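Bump. Still looking for Peptide MFS transporter structure tokens.
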Amino acid sequence: MKDMALWNEGDWIVAIASVVLALFLIAGAWAVTRREPEVGGHPKGLYILFFAEMWERFSYYGMRALLIFYLTQHWLYNDSSSNIIYGAYVSLVYITPVLGGWLADRYLGQRKAVLFGAVLLTLGHFFMAFEGTGGQNDPTINIFWLALSFIIVGSGFLKANISVIVGQLYPRTDVRRDGAYTIFYMGINVGAAVGTIIAGYLGQTLGWAYGFGAAGIGMLLGLVVFILGKPLLLGRGEPPRPLAKRTETTMYAIGVLGVAIMWVLIQYQSVVGWLMLVCGAALLLYVLVEAFKLEKHPRERMFAILFLIALQPLFWGLFEQAGGSLNLFTDRYIDRQGVPASLFQSINPIYIILLAPVFAGLWTWLGRRGLEPSTPAKFGLGLVQLGFGFLVLVWGAATVSPEALIPVVFLFGIYLFHTTGELCLSPVGLSAMNRLAPRHLASLIMGAWFFATAGGNFVAGLIGAATGGEDGEMTREGTLAVYQQIGWVAIVVGIVVIVIARFVKNLMHLDTLGDDDVGDDLEGQAEGPGEPQGAGIHPSTRPQE
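Sorry for the wait, here they are.
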């Protein structure tokens, strides 16, 4: 234990995060041990789901904060290759929930799916703690690929389904639902922020095994909370029909087979790229075929949906530099004042916690005055802010000499504008998908939305690889040049989107949109905070235009 007199900024940040975590745990223990069936006006099952999700996000984001450093410093991949692996991994994490949600809806039920996913995730995070000697010739690297595979498939079973159970605790017309998801969303972001700080600190100061081990312990605690809290879930999330043992075993076997498939795919990232390209083209063709079968207004709404979905790969491709190239850039070129680079990954979820209620209130305030931007205009604003964030860092770097470290305030600036951009696009987009899609195509459209998100994460790896230049190693000048380029591209595209927003809004035909036209009963997607990047989506940010 280091003497407190010798603590630096990183030590104090971790200490504060640990205190915050302890306070949440104490409050949670108090809530679930009350004799009353409800605490704070909500069923105690909500708090079980809160802490299960908090620990899952703790483990996922704690591991994510370290991954790019683990690839470059332990397995000795160059910067470009590390970014490609990172992008392939995160993209697969955001594809598998589509299958996991489908299997839960049809067979397993959400509770069993979450439980199985939590088991796979716990195994995956603990496998990450097997370091070996390092380098790509170390046979232990196969355990590393296996760990990533378990996490990918485990996320697929857990990610979407746990938020569905939150909605099932309440009648559909219950006025407490938005409040429940606000509480649940806090668990997402508290876990993301605290996990990043604690696991990142341990991994970069004491050793990889400590950081990944902390993530594994977090996931194990989430699993224990979920198992012990089963009675408080009031029978929600059970299979839609009696589940035969053979069918249940088959579902688990599919999960294990998925681990084996992912073990291969994650090692051949180019295959992932081609699969996404082919599947994306097939999905687009299928959606277009279905769209042309519809009447004029529903058909044009589908065209508006496709326009919004098409912006996803660009936005997330740039946004996800946070865990890849920007993480490396922070480590090497930012004046961190002794704080491990991975800890700065906590800035986004902290901003989300602080700013999401502000945006929720802002949209409401503007809406009452007839000034709220349309959905496509909000997308354009999100892209402009995203691009401007990169330029803030580029301009900040120009204030010091090429040999000097860049002041950390500019790093806070890029995360600020990326977060405000996210709040303009992600929750608004989820709401638009659910509102505009015809009922019989609701699941397909939501799947297309998440598929495009996954595509954006793969694009992020390609952009990150470009910062490595021809020899695969990042340079300050080369990275800033890439950031400047993609920053201006995002701003220009955003402005174009704002200019044509009125035309796209006309395609949405909001004046003729009725409850019978859209998929407003889509299980989970309509109810959940939607969490494409882990920074939770505040349910009250749904547009009302």
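The mean pLDDT is 85.

Edit: fixed formatting.
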